[in-house]
Design goal:
The protein is mostly helical and 118 residues long. The protein has one domain: Arc Repressor Mutant, subunit A (Orthogonal Bundle), CATH 1.10.10. It is built from 5 helices and 3 strands; from the N terminus they run H-E-H-H-E-E-H-H. It has helices at 3-20, 25-32, 36-48, 76-89, 94-117, and strands spanning 22-24, 52-56, 62-66. It has a 3-stranded antiparallel β-sheet. Helix 1 (3-20) crosses helix 4. It is globular and about 35 Å long.
Amino acid sequence: MSASRVRVVLIVLVNLINRRGRVSFSDAAKMLDLDENSLSQFIKILVNYNILEMEYSADGDRLLKKGEAIESTINPKEIREKVEAAFDAEKIEEQDISGKAEALIDVAAKKKSYEESI
């Protein structure tokens, strides 16, 4: 998965949260077809730049919600710009994302294979 693909996927997630207000971490991982540990690496960037916030429900579920940077409803173009600026500021390199994404995909495949063998 390329860095540009990761950015697009996260932009879609942030737009969804912008519309809904909140999305559970587990639902976000399912929608993006990533395990929660993999998703958390990318979500940390968005949390660090106040694009998203994470809170916990009464039953301990992690919930993703709008951060201060998108507190008011903004248009998809502005969301894209904020997500891309966060990734640019973190100097996320194409090769770095690709390596992480490939490792995450490998983990997800192994997990699926293990679950199918049970």
